[in-house]
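Field log, afternoon session.

UNIT: design team B
ACTIVITY: writing a sequence onto a fixed backbone
BACKBONE:
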């Protein structure tokens, strides 16, 4: 049987050429349909020749809607009007801007959205004409991640600054409030006592502001426990309605069944009230406040176990926020309210409390469309909320108290207060000085120490060293910062006490009585 032979001149047959062309087109279609980045090809006039599946998803056009049209349809102004001139200049002079490299530019989708892309352009020649291929990568997700990271870093830095300010502020308030308290019994004139009362009230208000700064910086001491979120909201409902007034409707949408969150109930109530008050101010003509509860389960990543979360959403029908205001809403002292109408610490307190609780918080808002704040908190097992036993109290009698504080003004006012309670006082300006008093054999019943001090020894290190010499020594920690984890552990393991600055003489007396009454 005779075999078919290739043409003597080495050329492929027309059938073979057609098959090769069909195969290459199939490969090209496969690439265009499966490539994760959008691919668009144009000719030297800027007319779209092909439009990949990813391009259709990215720009919102079907291929048939754009093939044959100028590629400038995918560009916002002013680039749309400049595109043809750019191609003409390149063909005439060879001057390149994007060809052969990647560059971040902006694109326009069918629905009018302008968004960032990374564009790289390749060039090829076919049949005496030039073909340009654009490889387009959507940068919106990357930009969102970058913005979220920058915002998180910014909030962390501001939080550290706020915590440091609160510490110094609390030391000053301890001196101010302490001296006012000690001065009060010596005043007889009604006018003088009234003036002192106003000063003391201002000091208390300043202490509340300092507490909010600590809450924002996630350094406010919390008492987390399983809390029935639905029950908490039902208990707050009447207070919310009274606070918001008759022009605002309050609606509770509570998930079914026990909804137990691990949180500090007092701080949770404060957060809800702060959100409600913000909503009231955003609805001057009245409206509706909706409080919803629910559950979420996070999707695990890289083998991590899923997290079970309890959700709390507070939504209003108010004025809403611009994007710029929404981005800055959690910053301390940022407020859009007029002078005297807000401190700018309400939302920052909510942010700090939720983050310190191991949760998440986010804001959804737009001008004229109201605001919704979503809080996610870790879920506890559905069980009855455990009661918290009160601390044992009782008369402790006259004690010998060693007061350790590196700020001389704070040390003096603390010593005066303790002496006024009938206790004997020894003062020390640093940890090493206090330790030398203890090692010298002084009969100390209670060590009352600041935590952050100059002299190379913290209050926690002092307490550990003091306990080695006196295992049964009672220890009361204090600080203008929030209670650190080491103190929380010490309280649980060895019965140490904690008193946050600024404090009044009544709180000081109660702390000493409770501590000395323990076995």
């Amino acid at each position: 049987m005779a075999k078919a032979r290739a043409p003597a001149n080495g050329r492929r047959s027309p059938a073979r050429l057609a098959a090769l062309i069909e195969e290459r087109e199939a490969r090209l279609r496969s690439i265009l349909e499966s490539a994760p980045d959008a691919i668009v090809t144009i000719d030297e006039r800027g007319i779209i020749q092909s439009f990949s599946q990813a391009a259709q998803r990215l720009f919102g056009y079907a291929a048939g809607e754009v093939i044959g049209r100028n590629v400038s349809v995918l560009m916002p102004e002013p680039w749309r009007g400049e595109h043809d001139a750019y191609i003409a200049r390149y063909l005439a002079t060879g001057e390149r801007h994007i060809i052969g490299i990647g560059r971040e530019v902006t694109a326009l989708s069918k629905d009018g959205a302008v968004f960032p892309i990374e564009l790289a352009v390749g060039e090829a020649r076919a049949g005496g004409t030039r073909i340009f291929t654009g490889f387009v990568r959507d940068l919106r997700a990357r930009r969102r991640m970058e913005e979220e990271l920058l915002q998180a870093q910014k909030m962390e830095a501001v939080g550290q600054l706020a915590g440091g300010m609160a510490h110094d502020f609390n030391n000053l308030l301890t001196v101010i409030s302490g001296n006012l308290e000690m001065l009060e019994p010596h005043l007889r004139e009604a006018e003088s006592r009234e003036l002192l009362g106003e000063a003391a009230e201002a000091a208390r208000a300043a202490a509340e502001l300092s507490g909010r700064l600590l809450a924002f910086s996630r350094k406010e001491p919390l008492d987390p426990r399983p809390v029935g979120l639905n029950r908490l909201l039902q208990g707050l409902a009447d207070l919310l309605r009274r606070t918001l007034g008759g022009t605002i409707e309050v609606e509770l949408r509570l998930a079914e069944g026990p909804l137990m969150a691990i949180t500090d109930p007092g701080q949770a109530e404060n957060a809800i009230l702060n959100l409600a008050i913000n909503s009231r101010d955003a609805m001057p003509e009245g409206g509706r406040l909706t409080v919803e509860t629910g559950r979420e389960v996070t999707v695990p990543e890289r083998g991590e176990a899923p997290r079970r979360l309890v959700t709390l959403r507070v939504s209003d029908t108010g004025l809403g926020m611009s994007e710029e205001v929404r981005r800055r809403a959690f910053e301390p002292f940022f407020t859009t309210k007029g002078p005297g109408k807000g401190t700018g610490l309400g939302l920052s307190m909510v942010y700090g409390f939720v983050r310190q609780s191991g949760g998440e918080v986010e804001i959804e808002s737009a001008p004229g469309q109201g605001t919704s704040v979503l809080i996610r908190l870790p879920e506890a097992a559905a069980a009855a909320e455990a009661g918290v036993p009160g601390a044992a109290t009782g008369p402790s009698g006259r004690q010998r108290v060693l007061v350790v504080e590196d700020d001389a003004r704070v040390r003096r006012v603390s010593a005066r207060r303790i002496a006024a309670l009938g206790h004997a006082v020894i003062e020390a300006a640093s940890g090493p000085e206090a330790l030398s008093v203890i090692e010298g054999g002084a009969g100390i019943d209670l060590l009352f120490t600041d935590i952050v001090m100059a002299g190379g020894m913290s209050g926690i290190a002092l307490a550990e060293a003091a306990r080695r010499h006196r295992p049964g020594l009672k220890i009361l920690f204090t600080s203008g910062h929030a209670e650190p984890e080491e103190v929380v552990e010490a309280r649980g393991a060895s019965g140490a006490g904690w008193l946050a600055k600024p404090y009044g003489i009544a709180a000081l007396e109660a702390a000493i009585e409770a501590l000395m009454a323990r076995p």
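LOG NOTE: The first helix runs from residue 14 to 34.
NEXT ACTIVITY: expression trials, pending approval
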